[in-house]
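Entry 14. Ran structure prediction on the chain below.
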Amino acid sequence: QRGSSRCPSSSRRSAAAGRITLYARGDDDDAVRAETDALGATFSAITSDPGRAAAFSAVLSACGAVLGPFLDSYHSATGVLRYEHPVVSTPLLTTAAWVPALFGLAGFLIGWLYVGLDLYFSAARDDDDDDGAGRRAPPGPPAILMCIAAFTFQYWASGTLFRNGATRTAIFAAMSAASAAGFLAFDATAT
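Output, structure tokens:
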């Protein structure tokens, strides 16, 4: 009886990242199992509609591949980086052939990480908080566009600070403050 019996020596702990329950049956190492309700809910939510997940993945990748090189161009224009063999080199865009693919992958990974963490922490909160307090409604298009604009400003600002001789420490401090402000303005959730 693996799934239903609970040993009196079971130990339970609730982690901030979700409910994790460990059950141990005596000295039998093979009988130790870890149960993560929040992780299961996250996986189920993502895999319940494969078509939607594939479309979302394609949009994330396309947005990263298109927007990323333009953001990266701020750093090219301000001297943060220089490509040995750019495929495009104009005042508006300077990029290498591999940059769109790299930013497409970054868009995919960051986008799914964000969704996965939101689902995971939301499932954990649902277990602890049945009244729904502390939840925010999903952002609408204007808020999403403002967040993208703020992130774009950070790219520009980091390059401008570099071009004007700011130290790495000063750039890091300014970008950390801007990131924290962006989080508080546009998200402020557990993730």
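The chain is about 60% helix and 10% strand. Will compare against last week's run tomorrow.
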